[in-house]
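Figure S7 source data.
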Amino acid sequence: MPFAPRGRVELRNGFIVGIFNYCDRWCEACPFTARCRLFADMAEIEASLDPGLKALVEAPPLEPTPPPPPWLEELLQEMDKAIHEPANNQPPERPIPPEHAGIERRARGYCKRAYRWLTALESAASCGPADPRAVISRFHTLIAAKIHRALHGLANDAPEDRDWPPDYDGSAKVALLGIERSHAAWLELVQQGVTSDAHAAPLIADLVWLGEALELVFPNARAFVRPAFDEPDEVSRLLARERRR
Ligand code: SF4
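Tokens for the predicted iron/sulfur cluster complex:
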């Protein structure tokens, strides 16, 4: 189950709780790497695969870690059991309704068309985050993935089982932001002469269509509060408090 955002940023062990659930996974351009548990875990895994950093990763902690309290031990055991037990009592997943299937198809279509353009270009992978080619490259798959998640989440929503804003709105918001950035990137590429108006026009049309469709299906998506990214004042206050300690 994804993190349940409540519009209040929270620090745990120095990391912002749930920040990576509604980000664009573009760590290279992210201002929160030092506060992201996922980034730290990934960096640790990468370091463990690098023989040069093995000694550092395997070094014993400076202070011995105290054993977890009994309640936490119990909770961890329950979570472990839930993960490993077959989900027999889970209702089968409902498919997305036919009226939403076109959105998913169009998102996949855009993804494929953008991918073809990118592979013909070859150099997009080596561009930095400020380059519009890198923006297209970063978001063409993310838009499709987030739309898929949002539509399936909506189809399978059970409002009585949650008391927090629905995950599908968060996913739709990330897709909408990716659509906006990709749209601007295509316009910039045309302006720079990297691609022609005729080439970019159908891709921009995909993005405009997708944006409008998402706004209709997820009217509350824009109001969804992504941990940290939509709470700059809360983050500043929290970090200032932490520094004072
Ligand atoms: S929150 Fe930032 S650092 Fe963490 S996974 Fe997302 S983009 Fe990467």
